[in-house]
Structures are given as structure tokens and as C-alpha cells.
Amino acid sequence: MKLHTLTLLPDGVEIALPEGSPLTDIEYETSEPLIPFGCRSGACGACVVEVVDGAEALGESDPEETDFLEDLGWADGNHRLACQCRLLDSATVRVVEN
Predict the structure, then answer these.
(1) 81 three-state secondary structure
(2) Beta carbons of 96 and 9 less than 8 angstroms apart
(3) Which of the listed CATH numbers 3.40.50.300, 3.30.360.10, 3.10.20.30, 3.40.50.150 matches domain 3-95?
């Protein structure tokens, strides 16, 4: 099983996750809630993250995710729903305060 590093800003916390894991799987690696989430299906918007580095490592955004992020005001292409991302390589994200 190949592991990749997810770095969370602003604190610089690094978590190793198996390849293909959703970013919200960090809940199983730490006792602290580092990324808030609710539905896990891309419908609540609680888990918005800003991609700082490694956008290609998070897989492609599907049209529903892109449309939903635009509805939330994050149309710049630098934001993703953590529950919809799959870690394919190392990446750095900043948790957005909602």
C-alpha cells in the first residue's frame, strides 16, 4: 500500500494516507478534527479546502463539485471539497473557515 503525505495549513500538520483515500479519511489518523465535514457526499460544503500545492494529486473535479463550489462562492478553481478528493500523490491544502 503506497502512502502519500497530505499537509494541512496553516499549522503544517502532515498526515500519511493510503493512495486513493478521500482527504476526510484523516479523521482515522488523528484525534483532532483537522478538516470539518458533514455529509461526505459533496452536498454540505463543510469540507472546502484551498489547494496550495499538488492540485493534480487530488484527482479531477467532477462537474457537480465544480458547480457546487461556484454556488458557494469558490469559483476560482483553487478550492475543492475534501470529501470528493482522492489523494493520488502528496499535496498541501488550507482548510477554509466557513
Answers:
(1) strand
(2) no
(3) 3.10.20.30
In eight-state DSSP terms, residue 61 is P
Q: What's the maximum distance between 2 C-alpha atoms anywhere in the chain?
A: 37
Q: Dig out the grid coordinates for 92 from the structure.
A: 498541501
At residue 89, the 3 state secondary structure works out as coil
> For residue 10, how many C-alpha atoms fall within 13 Å in the half-sphere facing its CB?
2
* Domain range annotation of the chain: 3-95
pLDDT tens for the chain, 98 residues long, are 899 999 999 989 999 999 999 998 888 888 788 888 777 777 888 899 999 999 999 999 999 999 999 999 998 889 999 999 999 999 999 998 76
